[in-house]
Amino acid sequence: MAKETPRTRAAQHKRIEILKAAVEIFGSKGSTNGTLADVAEQVGLTHAGVLHHFGSKQKLLLEVLAYRDQADVAELAEQHIPGGLELFLHLIRTAYVNAHRPGIVQAYTVLSSESVTEGHPGREYFEDRYTTLRREVTEAFEELCAAEGVTDSGAIAHGAAAILAVMDGLQLQWLLHPEVVELGEASEFAITAIVNGVLHPGPALESYRK
Amino acid sequence: MAKETPRTRAAQHKRIEILKAAVEIFGSKGSTNGTLADVAEQVGLTHAGVLHHFGSKQKLLLEVLAYRDQADVAELAEQHIPGGLELFLHLIRTAYVNAHRPGIVQAYTVLSSESVTEGHPGREYFEDRYTTLRREVTEAFEELCAAEGVTDSGAIAHGAAAILAVMDGLQLQWLLHPEVVELGEASEFAITAIVNGVLHPGPALESYRK
DNA sequence: CAGATTACCTACTGGTCAGTAAGCTTGCAA
DNA sequence: TTGCAAGCTTACTGACCAGTAGGTAATCTG
Questions:
Q1: CATH code for the structural domain at B1-63
Q2: I want to staple B115 with a disulfide (CB 3.0 to 4.6 A). Which of A114, A156, B45, B126 is the partner?
Q3: Which pLDDT does position B2 carry in this prediction?
């Protein structure tokens, strides 16, 4: 036995300190490139001290991923994940909020892509995450489509994936060019366009020919 | 000096062999995690042999990135990058083509995200790449908008970034769930929705309320 | 065919890193 | 108060890895 909740409040607090430092380090260097010593230094420990709390680097990584979600939810208050139109508005709001926390955005961007590499410990986490998110967006689309009297399950599936995709892709571009790409505004534009594309399909591109 | 074109045709060919192997290795393991020995093994050399051809791991990485572009262009034949409507159709076609080459897609996905980490050698390459691509898509939008008698430079800038973003984001989801996400179809849907969103802005999401 | 250059290899170096072992210190608990 | 466990530390290990040195064989060149 080992991994129970730490005994003292002080230790509990230290774990959270380590998690925050790890988000920063893994975000800025990647999870394979960032080292335990980097994390330890930020919280005034040696790397062995960090291992005392988390057992292994891999366990630390997984706790970091879980922690990000939990912190995310906490930051956006009690409002549990909304449905229908509210979900899309929530996603847009999230994009605007994210424009003020490059650290977390970078951690998420780097780690999610890293997760597709061979035997990456975070792979399952991100698979589950995208599956869940796509389901939620799909349900929101279904609710909205029902209200508008539209049905096209193919468009809904593509739209759900596309909305998550633009958000991720815009984050990457914003990280590379923060002064050029407006994360919130561009996300709002794209999400609106995609939602409209599902509810009121426009013409195919071919129709613009000549 | 040193870095000229290799003398013999055989060496020229070996370099290309190494580049192809490096795309695969860096794609499947990331550029920091993939080793020179991994690359060397695939082409029947030792890691010192690879260094003989490329000087350092960093130089190899940069040549890999340049090579991908060149191979991309070659594969899509002489048709140099088109403008206007043709560009969007070209991007959609590229998405369908990419659905048959997970290796290159993964390399690109992993390396582009990795590039935002501290002091990554590929950073400048990806900065330039996105700047160039956004400019091309922007010009295509301007051409199309002129033909349709629309002007909204803000929408164009957001649309250009968003189109590149969906493509990247869908690739990531497709790499995680190839059986669930349809790369070509979803990209086509999203690009069409965004182009329509620029040319014929739909209602704001608020208007769907209740 | 002689000399030089290329294309490697083997062997080594220096550095980094995760994880382990063993011991010291502090503080709660009986 | 004693004692044991939690929370560290220092020190070490083994593994991996990029880059270098120096040699050898093959090939090109004059």
A1: 1.10.10.60
A2: B126
A3: 34
pLDDT means over runs of 10, chain A (210 residues): 54 92 94 95 96 96 89 59 89 96 93 94 96 96 93 94 98 98 98 97 92
Q: Of A196, A168, A175, nearest to A95 (Cα)?
A: A168
Interface test with A, best of B120, B158, B209 (most A CBs within 10 A): B158
Cβ contact (<8 Å) for A168 and B168? yes
Which CATH code for domain B73-201?
A: 1.10.357
Assess whether B46 (CB) lies less than 7 A from strand C. yes
- Contact predicate A185/B158, CB 8 Å: yes
Tokens of B181: 């996400």
Domain chopping of chain A, boundaries: 1-63, 73-201
**Lowest mean pLDDT: which of A16-20, B10-14, B175-179?**
B10-14
CA angle centred on A97, ends A95 and A98, rounded to 5°:
65
pTM: 0.93
Residues 6 or more apart whose CB falls under 8 angstroms from that of B30 comprise A30, A32, A114, A117, B110, B111, B114
Cα(A77)–Cα(A140) distance, integer angstroms: 20
